[in-house]
Write a structure and sequence with these properties.
homodimer; 332 residues; alpha/beta; Quinone Oxidoreductase, Chain A, domain 1; Rossmann fold; 2 domains; 7-stranded mixed beta sheet; 6-stranded parallel beta sheet; 9 helices; 15 strands; 27% strand
Chain lengths: 332, 332
């Protein structure tokens, strides 16, 4: 019988996440109980929110316990089924953790049609990150024709989609990314009007040049120095879509934020959201996105890392911006 | 012929406003031109936003020029009229500055009916401050039955109305004010569920005790230490109505604000507004408020200072929270 390789949270990170914060263990492949299915994981999704689950701090979701399997969503193949709703060979999406095998109840799973799109897109553009972009842009960003929209982490799984949505609405879309290769991809493949490298010495001047009338919508994925650059450039009535602040997730003590008096003067709307409040809108997003992807009007990029043992290093790279596109671990 | 006593901006304040930042001059009463009216001011409205007009910094409105008459709205009596739309004796509301006389065009003025309400309420509960509370609560705060609403500067012209609106919506309303007399007024006269003195040594503990489930709506009038106390206590999905930050208006350098990651985690909406974007809603507010005032269901308090020479000192007191209720200068 095969073994189940699992990545556990070995300890809570202090500041920067290290590989020593994880442990890799091998255990028996579990047996599905009555009404359950046995799943062979194919693709694991590594996402920034998982950093939050490593900390004991109160948040919108329970932390992962020390010694427990790290949390993630995955795409898997049904190997055994004790429920007529699923049969061996079916491909499903669910939340099962950084491991190769798991058991689950069919009602926790969403069956995927491999003919519709490559199944791993259910973890990226057709899954949580794509839905995040859709919900944040439609509920908070609401870009209008001719407005200037700035997207941080523009080559990432969420930013890439958020920017393409804003572009489709007729906005001028300026990406911010780390490094020339990502910036070229954002401009040339994703079709943003510009993309600025936040590591460039003249980043601030480039931001001013790209946004001569200020920023009407800022999609916040990163926080830190990029937030400090964009915030003072928000235009009157700007919307700041608070999606994440990955550059600060390793900070042991929160950095100060911007003085909020400009929220009064400029009538800003600074609003956060969590995609899990809006799971029920996934079908709406998939129905809109699938034809656009097929028509080549909605692009995405995957950063595939092979084998579960590579997950800790890949996750640390994600927090440091070393991934390029939606980060996936191919495990099956 | 009478003289026109005027208060000019003598210099831009550095930090704290001082009486030396103003000069008091006497000039001739102006003559109305064709189509204009001569106005004898009766009541001047001193409001925190006027601090912003004293600074050269870019804002949503032009600053007052050094050497020019300080800006304010006033209620006045028409003394001479060169326009059939108004006749001597009519009482009007308009924007004319810290002075005793002015000329204006009738189209800039709103005629008041003294039978409807005391005319000076057009500067308070039935004017800009009341409309501010109405717009901010209906557009941003949106308190729901049973929610906890915290109002800073709760005895002030805006806060008193904002809290009474939230109370009428069925919310639990907690005021914050400076000093026992103001807190007693907020509880006993305005009917808030509680009012906390931010100067008390146990203010933070009292805030926790008053808001055991956190704060669903925070009406921000003050900034500074009160903001730092309330912000971490915002509940999931809280709305922070950014109306002003009077405690920081004299700061030469803006204080840091809160780290915004909690806006993501808690799905906060932090939104600012300026009442002058919504002047067209004044009739709607007056129509709603006048019957409530007559029925004793909407209370207000005026802090009346006599004579234009007292305006600079009264304005400095306003910035330091020494007024108690809507600050008015009685000049006629």
């Amino acid at each position: 019988m095969a073994e189940n390789t699992q990545v556990l949270l070995a300890r809570r990170p202090e500041g920067k996440v290290r590989v020593e914060d994880f442990s890799i263990v091998r255990s028996a492949v579990p047996e599905p109980g009555p009404g359950e299915v046995l799943l062979r994981h194919l693709w694991l999704s590594l996402d920034p929110y998982q950093r939050g689950r490593m900390s004991a701090a109160k948040s919108y979701a329970q932390p992962v316990a020390v010694g427990a399997v790290m949390e993630c969503r995955a795409v898997a193949r049904v190997e055994k089924s004790n429920d007529p709703a699923l049969k061996p060979g079916d491909i499903v999406l669910g939340a099962y953790g950084w491991q190769e095998w798991s058991v689950a109840s069919p009602k926790e799973l969403m069956k995927l049609d491999p003919a519709e799109a490559p199944v791993q897109t259910a973890l990226g553009i057709l899954g949580m990150p794509g839905l995040t972009a859709h919900v944040g842009m439609s509920d908070i960003g609401q870009p209008k024709r001719g407005e200037t929209v700035v997207i941080s982490a523009a080559s990432g799984a969420v930013g890439a989609v958020a920017g393409q949505i804003a572009k489709a609405e007729g906005a001028r879309v300026i990406g911010i990314a780390g490094g020339a290769a990502k910036c070229a991809y954002v401009r040339e493949e994703l079709g943003f009007d510009a993309c600025l490298d936040h590591r460039d010495a003249d980043f601030i001047q480039a931001l001013d040049a790209a946004c001569p009338k200020g920023v009407d919508v800022y999609w916040e994925n990163v926080g830190g120095a990029v937030q400090r650059a964009v915030f003072p450039r928000l235009a009157d009535f700007a919307r700041m879509v608070m999606c994440g602040m990955i550059a600060e997730y390793n900070d042991p003590v929160p950095q100060p934020g911007p003085n909020l008096m400009s929220a009064v003067r400029k009538r800003l709307r600074i609003q956060g959201f969590i995609v899990s409040d809006s799971w029920q809108r996934l079908p709406e997003w998939r129905a809109a996105a699938i034809p656009l992807i097929r028509a080549g009007k909605l692009r995405y990029r995957e950063d595939v890392v092979d084998g579960i043992e590579a997950a800790p290093e890949a996750f640390i790279g994600l927090l440091e911006g070393r991934n390029f596109g939606k980060l996936l671990i191919k495990v099956g």
